[in-house]
């Protein structure tokens, strides 16, 4: 329906990057393309050093090369983390009440039980909890969890011998609030025991097509992941590893991309505000979380008739059934056309 609009589709749904891959990264990929041998599952020494240095800058953490590991994008790691950690039937994994569907998919792949909750007090003294997922800035809501909340989650999990996995893929994209990493000393107390942070270069560096991500945190847990991933063939290709080094060492392109998203966010926020939508949370990340106070599919239909495609909130859990997720990842030209589309009868 949206594609049938006379002026074409404005796709604000999936959130796939549309801007070019920075030249410094493309050159590094090309220079490393003669790669006949097997790559290192653990990542090259250069990549491990680049990840550690970036984590120090972005997260305020002193994680060394033994506490980092590249992944084939972040989605793969999210989906398989419960299995890689040996979680299975009878175990419980806590996921946010409104969240990225792959958290729950990963729990199902492991045969474990998912519990949707934003408050660990509602989970109760459950000794079966093995893993707690947190996501800040959140997808789809853009909500930022304060350091004190994250610290309570870490303390709760440590008391029960559970792992905290923090999906921080949107950490560099703080707008009206500044996100904090679970690896920050004010959250983990300077100890990375039982804590993992998952990051991605898909949005920061437009590398969704490269499948470039990494995990950082507890060296003992990282060693477990590495041991299994070696045998499972979960290996980032050597040219992509070289591209990741270039991406992590260059902040200029990341800041330029951040400013593109900042401008698009402001344009879209003003347009949807003017059209009577209520924007909730959305203080960071790559999306606006919006509602018209109706079933999300009615909103999706209303927008599709104006050539605008968004993601229905129901995809992210029952609590999102009156919201839609609006991505910032269209071209400047398409984003600029949104206000006019929303005014159509």
UniProtKB/TrEMBL annotation:
Protein name: Aminotransferase
NCBIfam families: DapC_actino
Gene Ontology MF annotations: pyridoxal phosphate binding; transaminase activity
Domain Aminotransferase class I/classII large: 9-341
Family: Belongs to the class-I pyridoxal-phosphate-dependent aminotransferase family.
Keyword check for Transferase: yes
Entry keyword set: Aminotransferase, Coiled coil, Transferase
InterPro entries, A to Z: Aminotransferase_I/II_large, LL-DAP_aminotransferase, NHTrfase_class1_PyrdxlP-BS, OxyQ, PyrdxlP-dep_Trfase, PyrdxlP-dep_Trfase_major, PyrdxlP-dep_Trfase_small
Cofactor(s) in the UniProt record: pyridoxal 5'-phosphate
Signal sequence coordinates: none
Sections of the chain in a coiled coil: 244-271
Annotated organism of origin: Micromonospora avicenniae
EC number of the protein: 2.6.1.-
SUPFAM superfamilies referenced in this protein's UniProt entry, alphabetically: PLP-dependent transferases
């Amino acid at each position: 329906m949206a594609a049938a609009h006379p002026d074409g589709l404005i796709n604000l749904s999936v959130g796939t990057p549309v801007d070019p891959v920075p030249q410094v990264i493309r050159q590094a990929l090309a220079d490393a393309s003669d790669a006949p041998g097997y790559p290192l599952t653990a990542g090259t020494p250069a990549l491990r050093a680049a990840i550690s240095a970036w984590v120090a800058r972005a997260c305020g953490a002193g994680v060394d090369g033994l506490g980092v590991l590249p992944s084939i994008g972040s989605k793969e790691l999210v989906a398989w983390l419960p299995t890689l950690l040996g979680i299975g039937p009878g175990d419980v994994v806590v996921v946010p009440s409104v969240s990225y569907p792959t958290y729950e998919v990963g729990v199902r792949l492991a045969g474990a039980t998912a519990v949707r909750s934003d408050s660990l007090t509602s989970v109760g003294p459950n000794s079966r909890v093995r893993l707690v997922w947190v996501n800040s800035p959140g997808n789809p809501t853009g909500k930022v969890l304060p350091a004190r909340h994250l610290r309570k989650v870490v303390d709760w999990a440590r008391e029960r011998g559970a792992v905290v996995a923090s999906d921080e893929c949107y950490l560099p994209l703080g707008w009206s609030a500044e996100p904090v990493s679970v690896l920050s000393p004010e959250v983990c107390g300077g100890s990375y025991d039982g804590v993992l942070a998952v990051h991605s270069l898909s949005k920061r560096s437009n590398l969704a097509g490269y499948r470039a991500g990494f995990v950082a945190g507890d060296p003992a847990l990282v060693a477990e992941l590495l041991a299994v991933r070696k045998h499972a063939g979960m290996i980032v290709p050597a040219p992509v590893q070289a591209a990741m080094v270039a991406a992590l060492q260059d902040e200029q392109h990341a800041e330029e991309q951040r400013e593109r998203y900042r401008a698009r966010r402001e344009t879209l926020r003003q347009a949807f505000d003017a059209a009577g939508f209520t924007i909730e949370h959305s203080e960071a990340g790559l999306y606006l979380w919006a509602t018209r106070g109706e079933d999300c599919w009615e909103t999706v239909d209303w927008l599709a008739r104006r050539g605008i495609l968004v993601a229905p909130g129901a995809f992210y859990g029952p609590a999102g059934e009156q919201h839609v997720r609006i991505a910032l990842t269209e071209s400047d030209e398409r984003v600029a056309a949104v206000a006019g589309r929303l005014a159509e009868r």
